[in-house]
């Protein structure tokens, strides 16, 4: 039902039940927000978006107040502006003045608000209680001193990830965003997905930096630094440096990486192809024995950690194959560089990932010679490129110099929710019939939807497959399976909504346009690529002849399966 | 604890506070293990339970002393300078609010309101309420209790 309200003396129609903020956004009136995120339930905690409604004694928060027929709203009246300014001044009262040294200098929302409301002096001074920085976790660092208690991180963690690893602790002026028993992120259920970092408006939550370690390794003449990157990285870098999509972004990125000082660069998609080849064989074996179905994919380390902590009864259903990052690291150290005569101890493998959980994954899988020595996020790579003064406009594309960069487009699709499953269906079909899946493009598994289901007939057997993204949605599916739903064959789970293209290591403040561009880059690569099935990747044939044995054979299990240190709890 | 879980057998979040209250009544205080068990029983993440338990002054994570001293910090008592009483007791017992003396004889905590606003400031030791005390009274009371326990 439509009703008419008045905003800044302008008649506007609105739907019943809409919040004032929704209407303001629609008609293009900008009010500052802090605790509000469109994907989360509004709390009205920060009062940043207050507006004046005639007839009401107090200002109301636009994000959580619903419109009503009689409303006459003023969004930027002197009273409102004064209130907003006062709120920011109060927030700044116990916020450390160390913007110059802060990780979020330039991307901080509090900084932005302070500028927008033209705060030029410290009006209130409060006693700052000393707080401890929580940096035991290999992925995420928490500095409660910079927290403004907007609660975005804890709401993301609860509503979208479904884990609630961080939440408000204490009361009143002693309220903190904290972890159970104040033990820190590394000792609770945190799955390290890093979505809280993306949600945080200030520098209270940041990734644990691996850059110093990488820079040191780059300068060490005794080491042979190589880099591997996720298939989502080229599009993310293009977006960050404003590269047009008609440029050869992949090879520009390769050149930039070479300029940084990496001797070789590898696209992790090759390892994704190996992952698909193994998983296809494992799945067919499980299907034949009707055992451990549905099979859960295991390429997302946050999801694997979730299963280990919350549903250990499901862990036999997880695919036992290592994630592409770990496979690629193993491949580089044990085969690619060692066949060139370089000792594995000398090789320093850096991965560039859109993910913070990968940092923890690399840290925990470190028995013997660890496959991956350091993981940097896309944000860290952007900083490294800036630090080393690399100008993308002047770069020439670097042609691919190694055979180990061949991958099928299935391998690249790992970057988006549904992509791994699509590739897996192609591989299973090829393995069981020797033919390409027709049509190879599975539309049901594409697009930005949290849950995608498809029914695909392979070798006359109808298979039900589901791709879910956002752990909270996966938890719903887990409940369905626990309650007896048994018609599913494969489940692909990505902890972050829409998969790695929206990972916790991506640019802060990415919007839907960015997501769509990253998604399009992956789907376009699939259109253009000739080799669409992992099994047809020519490099794979060579690898399986010289380095690996038959898919799903004991020899491969040793190299490619997850070790005994399953839960990897510190 | 199993009896308490049986009594509140439904997985409802509103059962959280009664469960915590009853467990604390029995055990005297809450521990990490208790929170974990309640979390499994109700299907609520430990962190949220910890958040609730730290929000309310009634829940404590430390054992009570033989004499449990509660100093009211409600508005009325606060205005009647209950905080100077708190400081005085902290000085006498050599412990901070929220902790127990080394000899386990006294524990000290602050509470929000005990409902005796007209008698502010109010202090409660075990089940006895004291009001309108002077600083000298305080040290006398604590001395007597200490002697009594020896």
Record the SSE blueprint.
The complex is a heterodimer of chains A (570) and B (150).
Chain A: E1 2-7, E2 10-15, H1 20-27, E3 50-53, E4 60-61, E5 72-74, H2 78-93, H3 109-116, E6 140-142, H4 152-160, E7 167-169, E8 176-178, H5 195-199, E9 205-207, H6 211-218, E10 224-229, H7 233-240, H8 249-260, E11 264-267, H9 269-289, E12 295-296, H10 301-310, H11 324-339, E13 347-353, H12 357-364, E14 374-377, H13 378-387, H14 409-412, H15 419-433, E15 451-458, E16 461-469, H16 471-482, E17 490-494, H17 512-528, H18 538-546, H19 554-560
Parallel strand pairs in A: 1-5, 10-11, 10-13, 12-17, 13-14, 16-17
Antiparallel strand pairs in A: 1-2, 3-4, 3-5, 6-9, 7-8, 15-16
Chain B: H1 2-7, H2 16-27, H3 32-42, H4 46-55, E1 67-72, H5 75-79, H6 82-93, E2 99-100, E3 106-111, E4 122-125, E5 128-131, H7 135-149
Parallel strand pairs in B: 1-3
Antiparallel strand pairs in B: 1-4, 2-3, 4-5
Helix pairs in contact in B: 2-3, 6-7
């Amino acid at each position: 039902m439509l009703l008419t309200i008045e905003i800044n003396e302008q008649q506007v129609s609105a739907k019943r039940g809409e919040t004032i903020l929704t209407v303001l956004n629609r008609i293009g009136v900008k009010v500052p927000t802090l605790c509000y995120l469109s994907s989360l339930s509004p709390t009205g905690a920060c009062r940043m978006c207050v507006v004046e409604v005639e007839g009401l004694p107090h200002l109301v928060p636009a994000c959580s107040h619903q419109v009503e027929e009689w409303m006459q709203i003023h969004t930027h009246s002197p009273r409102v502006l004064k209130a907003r300014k006062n709120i920011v001044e109060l927030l700044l009262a116990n916020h450390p003045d160390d913007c110059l040294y802060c990780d979020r200098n330039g991307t901080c929302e509090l900084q932005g608000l302070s500028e927008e409301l033209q705060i030029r002096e410290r009006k209130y001074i409060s006693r700052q209680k000393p707080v401890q920085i929580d940096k035991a976790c290999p992925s995420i660092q928490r500095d409660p001193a910079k927290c403004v208690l907007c609660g975005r991180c804890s709401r993301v963690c609860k509503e979208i990830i479904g884990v609630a690893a961080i939440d408000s602790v204490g009361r009143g002026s002693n309220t903190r965003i904290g972890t159970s028993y104040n033990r820190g992120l590394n000792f609770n259920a945190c799955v390290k997905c890093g979505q809280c970092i993306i949600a945080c408006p200030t520098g209270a939550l940041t990734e644990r930096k691996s850059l110093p370690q990488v820079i040191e390794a780059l300068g060490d003449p005794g080491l042979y630094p190589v880099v591997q990157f996720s298939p989502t990285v080229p599009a993310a870098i293009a977006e960050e440096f404003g590269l047009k999509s008609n440029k050869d972004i992949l090879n520009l990125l390769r050149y930039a990486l070479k300029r940084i000082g990496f001797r070789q660069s590898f696209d992790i998609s090759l390892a994704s192809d190996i992952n698909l080849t193994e998983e296809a064989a494992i799945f067919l074996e499980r299907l034949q024995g009707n055992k451990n179905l549905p099979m859960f994919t295991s390429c997302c380390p946050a999801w694997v950690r979730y299963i280990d902590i919350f549903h250990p009864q499901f862990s036999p259903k997880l695919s036992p194959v290592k994630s592409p990052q770990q496979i690629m690291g193993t491949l580089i150290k044990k085969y690619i560089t060692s066949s060139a005569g370089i000792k594995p101890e000398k090789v320093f493998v850096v991965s560039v990932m859109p993910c913070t959980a990968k940092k923890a994954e690399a840290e925990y899988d470190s028995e013997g010679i660890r496959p991956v020595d350091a993981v940097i996020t896309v944000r860290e790579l952007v900083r490294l490129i800036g630090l080393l003064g690399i100008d993308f406009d002047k770069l020439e594309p670097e042609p691919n110099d190694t055979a180990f960069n061949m991958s099928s487009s299935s391998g690249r699709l790992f970057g988006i929710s549904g992509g791994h499953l699509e590739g897996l269906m192609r591989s299973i079909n090829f393995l069981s019939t020797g033919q390409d899946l027709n049509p190879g493009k599975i539309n049901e598994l594409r697009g930005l939807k949290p849950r995608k289901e498809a029914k695909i007939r392979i070798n006359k057997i109808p298979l039900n497959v589901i791709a879910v993204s956002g752990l909270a949605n996966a938890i719903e599916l887990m409940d369905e399976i626990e309650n007896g739903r048994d018609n599913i064959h494969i489940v692909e789970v990505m902890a972050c909504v829409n998969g790695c293209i929206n990972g916790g290591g991506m640019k802060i403040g990415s919007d839907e346009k960015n997501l769509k561009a990253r998604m399009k880059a992956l789907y376009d690569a699939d259109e253009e690529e000739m080799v669409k099935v992992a099994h047809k990747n020519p490099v794979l044939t060579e690898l399986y002849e010289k380095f690996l044995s038959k898919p799903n054979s004991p020899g491969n299990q040793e190299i490619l399966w997850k070790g005994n240190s399953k839960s990897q709890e510190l | 604890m199993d009896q308490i879980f049986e009594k509140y057998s439904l997985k409802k979040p509103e059962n959280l506070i009664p469960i915590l209250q009853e467990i604390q009544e029995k055990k005297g205080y809450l521990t990490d293990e208790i929170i974990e068990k309640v979390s499994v029983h109700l299907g609520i993440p430990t962190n949220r339970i910890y958040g609730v338990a730290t929000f309310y002054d009634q829940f404590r994570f430390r054992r009570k002393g033989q004499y449990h001293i509660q100093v009211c910090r409600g508005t009325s008592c606060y205005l009647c300078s209950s905080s100077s009483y708190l400081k005085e007791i902290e000085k006498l017992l050599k412990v901070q609010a929220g902790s127990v003396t080394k000899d386990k004889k006294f524990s000290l905590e602050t509470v929000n309101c005990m409902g005796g606003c007209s008698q502010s400031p109010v202090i409660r030791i075990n089940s006895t309420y004291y009001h309108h005390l002077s600083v000298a009274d305080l040290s006398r009371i604590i001395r007597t209790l200490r002697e009594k326990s020896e």
